[in-house]
Specification:
Number of domains: 2
Helix content: 25-40%
Largest sheet: 7 strands, mixed
CATH superfamily of the largest domain: NAD(P)-binding Rossmann-like Domain
Strand order of the largest sheet: 12-11-7-10-9-8-15
Shape: globular
Structural class: alpha/beta
Radius of gyration: 20 Å
Number of strands: 15
CATH architecture of the largest domain: 3-Layer(aba) Sandwich
CATH topology of the largest domain: Rossmann fold
Distance between the termini: 28 Å
Bound molecules: (2R,3S,4s,5R,6S)-2,3,4,5,6-pentahydroxycyclohexanone
Length: 342
Protein backbone atom coordinates (compact mmCIF):
# COMPACT_ATOMS: atom_id res chain seq x y z
CA UNK A 1 0.00 0.00 0.00
CA UNK A 2 1.02 3.59 -0.59
CA UNK A 3 0.82 5.73 2.54
CA UNK A 4 -1.11 8.90 1.66
CA UNK A 5 0.22 11.73 3.79
CA UNK A 6 -1.08 15.21 4.62
CA UNK A 7 1.54 17.78 5.59
CA UNK A 8 0.19 20.57 7.79
CA UNK A 9 2.24 23.76 7.83
CA UNK A 10 4.69 24.31 4.99
CA UNK A 11 7.11 26.83 6.37
CA UNK A 12 10.80 25.94 6.41
CA UNK A 13 10.44 22.52 8.11
CA UNK A 14 7.13 21.49 6.56
CA UNK A 15 8.33 22.22 3.04
CA UNK A 16 11.50 20.24 3.69
CA UNK A 17 9.44 17.31 5.06
CA UNK A 18 6.94 17.47 2.16
CA UNK A 19 9.76 17.40 -0.38
CA UNK A 20 11.60 14.61 1.44
CA UNK A 21 8.39 12.55 1.59
CA UNK A 22 7.59 13.20 -2.08
CA UNK A 23 11.06 12.64 -3.51
CA UNK A 24 13.09 10.52 -1.14
CA UNK A 25 10.71 8.33 0.87
CA UNK A 26 9.48 5.05 -0.56
CA UNK A 27 5.89 3.83 -0.28
CA UNK A 28 4.56 7.35 0.31
CA UNK A 29 2.51 9.89 -1.64
CA UNK A 30 1.93 13.41 -0.37
CA UNK A 31 -1.76 13.91 -1.13
CA UNK A 32 -2.74 16.97 0.91
CA UNK A 33 -0.98 20.20 1.85
CA UNK A 34 -2.33 22.68 4.36
CA UNK A 35 -0.96 26.08 5.36
CA UNK A 36 -2.38 29.34 6.67
CA UNK A 37 -0.99 30.96 3.51
CA UNK A 38 -2.99 29.69 0.50
CA UNK A 39 -0.24 30.78 -1.93
CA UNK A 40 2.44 28.94 0.00
CA UNK A 41 0.25 25.82 0.25
CA UNK A 42 -0.40 25.95 -3.51
CA UNK A 43 3.26 26.28 -4.31
CA UNK A 44 4.27 23.22 -2.24
CA UNK A 45 1.22 21.23 -3.39
CA UNK A 46 2.24 21.90 -6.96
CA UNK A 47 5.81 20.70 -6.46
CA UNK A 48 4.76 17.57 -4.54
CA UNK A 49 1.72 16.56 -6.63
CA UNK A 50 -0.73 17.13 -3.75
CA UNK A 51 -3.97 19.10 -3.42
CA UNK A 52 -4.54 21.99 -1.01
CA UNK A 53 -7.03 21.74 1.86
CA UNK A 54 -7.35 25.05 3.67
CA UNK A 55 -8.75 23.75 6.98
CA UNK A 56 -6.22 21.66 8.95
CA UNK A 57 -8.91 19.52 10.62
CA UNK A 58 -10.49 18.79 7.25
CA UNK A 59 -7.06 17.87 5.92
CA UNK A 60 -6.60 15.35 8.77
CA UNK A 61 -10.05 13.82 8.23
CA UNK A 62 -9.78 13.67 4.42
CA UNK A 63 -10.49 10.30 2.77
CA UNK A 64 -7.28 10.46 0.76
CA UNK A 65 -5.15 10.86 3.91
CA UNK A 66 -3.85 7.83 5.86
CA UNK A 67 -1.30 9.62 8.05
CA UNK A 68 -0.28 13.16 8.97
CA UNK A 69 2.92 15.18 9.40
CA UNK A 70 2.45 18.25 11.59
CA UNK A 71 4.90 21.10 11.06
CA UNK A 72 2.62 23.99 12.01
CA UNK A 73 3.63 26.46 14.76
CA UNK A 74 3.66 24.87 18.26
CA UNK A 75 0.43 26.48 19.54
CA UNK A 76 -1.55 24.67 16.78
CA UNK A 77 -0.24 21.19 17.65
CA UNK A 78 -2.58 20.22 20.51
CA UNK A 79 -5.81 20.47 18.50
CA UNK A 80 -4.27 18.86 15.43
CA UNK A 81 -2.70 15.92 17.30
CA UNK A 82 -6.02 15.31 19.11
CA UNK A 83 -7.79 15.31 15.73
CA UNK A 84 -5.34 12.61 14.55
CA UNK A 85 -6.23 10.54 17.62
CA UNK A 86 -9.95 11.04 16.92
CA UNK A 87 -9.61 9.90 13.31
CA UNK A 88 -7.21 7.10 14.28
CA UNK A 89 -4.44 8.30 11.94
CA UNK A 90 -0.69 7.94 12.66
CA UNK A 91 0.97 11.32 13.11
CA UNK A 92 4.55 12.57 13.11
CA UNK A 93 4.45 15.82 15.09
CA UNK A 94 7.38 18.23 14.99
CA UNK A 95 8.61 19.29 18.41
CA UNK A 96 7.19 20.66 20.65
CA UNK A 97 4.39 18.11 21.10
CA UNK A 98 2.43 21.02 22.63
CA UNK A 99 3.57 24.28 24.17
CA UNK A 100 3.15 23.27 27.83
CA UNK A 101 3.55 20.19 30.00
CA UNK A 102 -0.09 20.03 31.08
CA UNK A 103 -1.52 19.76 27.57
CA UNK A 104 1.25 17.29 26.60
CA UNK A 105 0.25 15.06 29.52
CA UNK A 106 -3.39 15.26 28.42
CA UNK A 107 -2.30 13.99 24.99
CA UNK A 108 -0.24 11.16 26.53
CA UNK A 109 -3.35 10.10 28.47
CA UNK A 110 -5.72 10.43 25.49
CA UNK A 111 -3.45 8.20 23.37
CA UNK A 112 -3.02 5.71 26.20
CA UNK A 113 -6.81 5.49 26.64
CA UNK A 114 -7.23 4.89 22.95
CA UNK A 115 -4.88 1.92 23.26
CA UNK A 116 -3.23 2.63 19.90
CA UNK A 117 0.22 4.15 19.53
CA UNK A 118 -0.43 6.82 16.91
CA UNK A 119 1.88 9.67 17.91
CA UNK A 120 5.55 10.03 17.07
CA UNK A 121 7.40 13.21 18.05
CA UNK A 122 10.03 14.63 15.70
CA UNK A 123 13.12 14.20 17.86
CA UNK A 124 15.04 13.28 14.73
CA UNK A 125 18.49 13.09 16.32
CA UNK A 126 17.60 9.55 17.40
CA UNK A 127 17.76 8.66 13.67
CA UNK A 128 21.17 10.25 13.12
CA UNK A 129 23.76 7.53 12.51
CA UNK A 130 26.21 9.04 15.00
CA UNK A 131 23.68 9.34 17.84
CA UNK A 132 22.42 5.82 17.08
CA UNK A 133 26.05 4.63 17.25
CA UNK A 134 26.53 6.33 20.61
CA UNK A 135 23.33 4.76 21.96
CA UNK A 136 24.72 1.41 20.71
CA UNK A 137 27.95 1.95 22.68
CA UNK A 138 25.89 2.66 25.81
CA UNK A 139 23.70 -0.42 25.27
CA UNK A 140 26.62 -2.75 24.53
CA UNK A 141 28.36 -1.81 27.78
CA UNK A 142 31.72 -2.10 25.97
CA UNK A 143 33.07 1.03 27.70
CA UNK A 144 31.27 0.41 30.95
CA UNK A 145 28.57 2.67 32.32
CA UNK A 146 28.15 6.17 30.90
CA UNK A 147 28.89 8.88 33.48
CA UNK A 148 28.70 12.27 31.79
CA UNK A 149 27.75 14.06 28.60
CA UNK A 150 29.40 17.25 27.33
CA UNK A 151 27.31 18.86 24.62
CA UNK A 152 27.65 21.88 22.36
CA UNK A 153 24.73 23.14 20.28
CA UNK A 154 25.57 26.09 18.07
CA UNK A 155 23.48 27.82 15.44
CA UNK A 156 24.87 30.32 12.99
CA UNK A 157 22.03 32.79 13.55
CA UNK A 158 18.42 33.07 14.69
CA UNK A 159 15.42 35.23 13.83
CA UNK A 160 15.34 38.61 15.58
CA UNK A 161 12.37 37.42 17.72
CA UNK A 162 14.27 34.38 19.10
CA UNK A 163 14.43 35.01 22.86
CA UNK A 164 16.00 33.45 25.97
CA UNK A 165 13.09 31.04 26.57
CA UNK A 166 13.25 29.84 22.97
CA UNK A 167 16.90 28.93 23.49
CA UNK A 168 15.55 26.45 26.06
CA UNK A 169 12.33 25.31 24.37
CA UNK A 170 13.46 25.31 20.75
CA UNK A 171 17.17 24.48 20.86
CA UNK A 172 18.10 22.92 24.24
CA UNK A 173 15.05 20.64 23.96
CA UNK A 174 17.11 18.48 21.57
CA UNK A 175 19.73 17.84 24.28
CA UNK A 176 16.88 17.09 26.70
CA UNK A 177 15.79 14.31 24.36
CA UNK A 178 19.37 13.21 23.59
CA UNK A 179 20.06 12.85 27.32
CA UNK A 180 16.92 10.76 27.89
CA UNK A 181 17.65 8.71 24.74
CA UNK A 182 21.30 8.00 25.50
CA UNK A 183 20.96 7.39 29.23
CA UNK A 184 17.52 5.76 29.10
CA UNK A 185 16.37 7.62 32.20
CA UNK A 186 14.55 10.79 33.14
CA UNK A 187 16.09 14.18 33.95
CA UNK A 188 15.50 15.12 37.58
CA UNK A 189 16.91 18.65 37.84
CA UNK A 190 18.04 21.45 35.61
CA UNK A 191 20.14 24.55 36.12
CA UNK A 192 20.79 27.24 33.51
CA UNK A 193 23.68 29.66 33.74
CA UNK A 194 23.89 32.78 31.61
CA UNK A 195 27.45 33.85 30.86
CA UNK A 196 28.27 37.28 29.45
CA UNK A 197 26.25 37.55 26.25
CA UNK A 198 27.65 37.77 22.75
CA UNK A 199 27.61 41.38 21.54
CA UNK A 200 24.88 40.59 18.97
CA UNK A 201 22.44 39.56 21.75
CA UNK A 202 19.56 41.84 22.67
CA UNK A 203 17.50 42.63 25.75
CA UNK A 204 15.31 39.54 25.46
CA UNK A 205 18.03 37.11 24.42
CA UNK A 206 20.64 35.65 26.77
CA UNK A 207 23.03 33.95 24.38
CA UNK A 208 25.00 31.76 24.98
CA UNK A 209 23.45 29.70 27.80
CA UNK A 210 24.97 26.90 29.78
CA UNK A 211 22.64 24.15 31.06
CA UNK A 212 23.32 21.38 33.55
CA UNK A 213 21.02 18.38 33.82
CA UNK A 214 20.96 15.77 36.57
CA UNK A 215 19.37 12.40 35.89
CA UNK A 216 17.65 9.75 38.01
CA UNK A 217 20.83 7.80 38.70
CA UNK A 218 22.85 10.97 39.44
CA UNK A 219 24.57 11.35 36.07
CA UNK A 220 25.27 14.88 34.86
CA UNK A 221 25.15 16.60 31.49
CA UNK A 222 26.50 19.99 30.51
CA UNK A 223 25.27 21.81 27.43
CA UNK A 224 26.52 24.97 25.80
CA UNK A 225 23.74 26.43 23.66
CA UNK A 226 24.91 29.32 21.52
CA UNK A 227 22.43 30.29 18.84
CA UNK A 228 24.15 33.25 17.19
CA UNK A 229 27.74 32.23 16.65
CA UNK A 230 27.78 33.80 13.19
CA UNK A 231 29.88 30.83 12.07
CA UNK A 232 28.03 27.60 11.31
CA UNK A 233 25.74 24.85 12.60
CA UNK A 234 27.62 22.62 15.02
CA UNK A 235 26.14 19.94 17.25
CA UNK A 236 28.64 17.92 19.25
CA UNK A 237 28.24 15.38 22.00
CA UNK A 238 30.93 13.67 24.02
CA UNK A 239 29.94 10.78 26.26
CA UNK A 240 32.33 9.89 29.07
CA UNK A 241 32.20 6.27 30.22
CA UNK A 242 33.91 4.21 32.94
CA UNK A 243 36.51 3.06 30.42
CA UNK A 244 36.73 5.71 27.73
CA UNK A 245 34.88 8.40 25.87
CA UNK A 246 33.15 8.79 22.52
CA UNK A 247 32.73 12.04 20.64
CA UNK A 248 30.28 12.63 17.81
CA UNK A 249 29.45 15.58 15.59
CA UNK A 250 33.01 16.53 14.79
CA UNK A 251 32.23 16.80 11.08
CA UNK A 252 35.38 14.86 10.38
CA UNK A 253 34.00 13.09 7.33
CA UNK A 254 36.59 14.59 5.01
CA UNK A 255 39.68 16.35 6.30
CA UNK A 256 41.31 18.66 3.78
CA UNK A 257 44.94 19.73 3.93
CA UNK A 258 45.30 22.85 1.85
CA UNK A 259 47.36 25.91 2.59
CA UNK A 260 50.66 25.08 4.31
CA UNK A 261 50.00 24.40 7.95
CA UNK A 262 46.22 24.46 7.53
CA UNK A 263 43.88 21.52 7.65
CA UNK A 264 40.14 21.27 7.92
CA UNK A 265 36.90 20.45 6.18
CA UNK A 266 33.47 21.78 5.49
CA UNK A 267 31.13 22.82 8.30
CA UNK A 268 27.36 22.61 7.82
CA UNK A 269 25.45 25.87 7.55
CA UNK A 270 22.19 24.77 9.18
CA UNK A 271 20.34 21.89 10.81
CA UNK A 272 18.76 20.60 7.58
CA UNK A 273 22.22 20.02 6.12
CA UNK A 274 23.70 18.56 9.33
CA UNK A 275 20.76 16.27 10.07
CA UNK A 276 19.52 15.60 6.52
CA UNK A 277 20.14 11.85 6.88
CA UNK A 278 18.36 11.80 10.25
CA UNK A 279 15.30 13.65 8.93
CA UNK A 280 15.05 11.36 5.89
CA UNK A 281 15.54 8.19 7.98
CA UNK A 282 12.96 9.43 10.48
CA UNK A 283 10.34 9.94 7.75
CA UNK A 284 11.11 6.58 6.11
CA UNK A 285 10.92 4.71 9.43
CA UNK A 286 7.70 6.53 10.39
CA UNK A 287 6.11 5.83 6.97
CA UNK A 288 7.08 2.12 7.11
CA UNK A 289 5.79 1.80 10.67
CA UNK A 290 2.50 3.60 9.77
CA UNK A 291 1.90 1.40 6.69
CA UNK A 292 2.51 -1.72 8.75
CA UNK A 293 0.20 -0.51 11.52
CA UNK A 294 -2.63 0.34 9.14
CA UNK A 295 -2.30 -3.01 7.36
CA UNK A 296 -2.15 -5.09 10.56
CA UNK A 297 -4.33 -3.01 12.88
CA UNK A 298 -1.50 -3.20 15.43
CA UNK A 299 -0.41 0.39 16.07
CA UNK A 300 3.11 0.59 17.49
CA UNK A 301 5.50 3.56 17.51
CA UNK A 302 9.20 2.65 17.62
CA UNK A 303 10.44 6.25 17.63
CA UNK A 304 10.04 8.95 20.26
CA UNK A 305 6.49 8.79 21.60
CA UNK A 306 4.04 11.27 23.15
CA UNK A 307 5.63 10.50 26.54
CA UNK A 308 9.00 11.70 25.22
CA UNK A 309 7.35 14.93 24.02
CA UNK A 310 5.73 15.34 27.43
CA UNK A 311 8.96 14.66 29.36
CA UNK A 312 10.78 17.20 27.20
CA UNK A 313 8.03 19.77 27.87
CA UNK A 314 8.33 19.23 31.63
CA UNK A 315 12.13 19.67 31.54
CA UNK A 316 11.90 22.76 29.34
CA UNK A 317 9.30 24.36 31.61
CA UNK A 318 11.62 23.75 34.55
CA UNK A 319 14.47 25.04 32.37
CA UNK A 320 12.67 28.33 31.85
CA UNK A 321 12.13 28.63 35.64
CA UNK A 322 15.85 27.85 36.12
CA UNK A 323 16.75 30.45 33.51
CA UNK A 324 14.66 33.14 35.17
CA UNK A 325 15.68 32.33 38.77
CA UNK A 326 19.29 31.26 38.32
CA UNK A 327 18.43 28.41 40.71
CA UNK A 328 18.59 24.63 40.44
CA UNK A 329 15.05 23.47 39.66
CA UNK A 330 14.04 19.94 40.61
CA UNK A 331 11.79 18.02 38.25
CA UNK A 332 9.14 15.50 39.11
CA UNK A 333 7.48 13.34 36.52
CA UNK A 334 4.62 11.00 37.31
CA UNK A 335 5.61 7.33 37.07
CA UNK A 336 5.24 6.38 33.43
CA UNK A 337 3.76 3.06 34.54
CA UNK A 338 0.93 4.92 36.27
CA UNK A 339 -0.48 5.65 32.79
CA UNK A 340 -0.79 2.16 31.27
CA UNK A 341 -0.06 2.32 27.56
CA UNK A 342 1.87 5.62 27.74
C1 LIG B 1 15.42 24.47 15.38
O1 LIG B 1 14.01 24.47 15.57
C2 LIG B 1 15.94 23.09 15.45
O2 LIG B 1 15.24 22.13 15.67
C3 LIG B 1 17.40 22.99 15.36
O3 LIG B 1 17.84 21.67 15.43
C4 LIG B 1 18.03 23.80 16.45
O4 LIG B 1 19.42 23.75 16.33
C5 LIG B 1 17.57 25.24 16.38
O5 LIG B 1 18.14 25.96 17.43
C6 LIG B 1 16.07 25.31 16.46
O6 LIG B 1 15.64 26.64 16.33
Amino acid sequence: MTLRVAVLGVGLMGTYHAETLANRTSGVAVTVINDFSPERAQEVAHSTGARVVSDPLEAIAADDVDAVVIATPGPAHEKQVLACLETGKPVLCEKPLTTDAESSLAIVKAEAELGKQLIQVGFMRRYDHEYAHLRGVVESGELGAPLLLHCAHRNKATHPHFDSEMVVKDALVHEVDVTRFLFGEEITAVRILTPAPVSTSHENLRDPQFAIFETESGRMVDVEVFVNTGIAYEVRTEAVFERGSVQIGLGMGAVHKTAPGVWGGPVTADFRERFDQAYASQLQAWADQSRKAIASGNYVVNGPRAWDGYAAAVVCEAGVRALNSGERVAIELPERASIPGA
